[in-house]
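Troubleshooting log. The previous structure file for this entry was overwritten by mistake, so regenerating from the original sequence record. Sequence copied from the archived sheet and checked twice against the printout by T.R.
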Amino acid sequence: AQLLEACASRSLPAALAEVEKLETEGIPLIPFFDDCISCIREQLLASETGDVLFSPAELSDMALLFMERRRDAKQGIDPRFAFELAVTPVALGLLPNASTTGASPRNTGANPVAIARVEPVPSNGTSTPEGISLAEVRRAWPKILQQVSEQNASLSFILTNARPERVEGNTMTIRFKFPFHKEKILEQPKNRQAVMAALERVLGIASLRLEGIVGTSDEAAVRSPTDAVSRFIHIFDGQMIDEAAES
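Regenerated output below.
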């Protein structure tokens, strides 16, 4: 509940602090995904009373997002990183149906959202690409998204569906789910520069090159929206379906 309340307040630092607290307390994060999805369901069922943290449309977006990140965690992605990727777009109000319910309104373009200052990730005193590991980039990814969101919210939303894949020398490779996402970020100079500027501010590196690949590490084809809705229906029917058991 505290994690969802932090997300509803549109405070990314508070939401990330809750995720860190869960890991510090030794709470298994993959089962906690199920708890969060159950809480989202309870919020959705209670939406008729009006006593909820999010609008029904945003709750639907959140349920699908948390199921996607839960699947990523079960397939081998660091559970904490998966959780950070789940809460970041919610806390920044970037979901398609994000409402103004909560302490801070969603950025609509008319009034810029005040973003907290982001400190660079420590890199053992070095500012060379060789001093940054993939693990450090992934830990800093939510802060990088926050920096991008300050300049362009739509780019930040695209990057919530991407993830750093590898860092080799002065080259960082980002894995995108869709080809047009890769083209939007890497082939449009203005957008590419916005991402590189965010990387420089957060990581303290100015010479990092960006490359991109498309697809997921475990499947070549992108799942259709119908597949996502099917999983949504399974969970909201009252029973969690273990995808590994089904296969």
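Strands lie at 163-168, 171-176, 209-214. Archived copy saved in two places this time.
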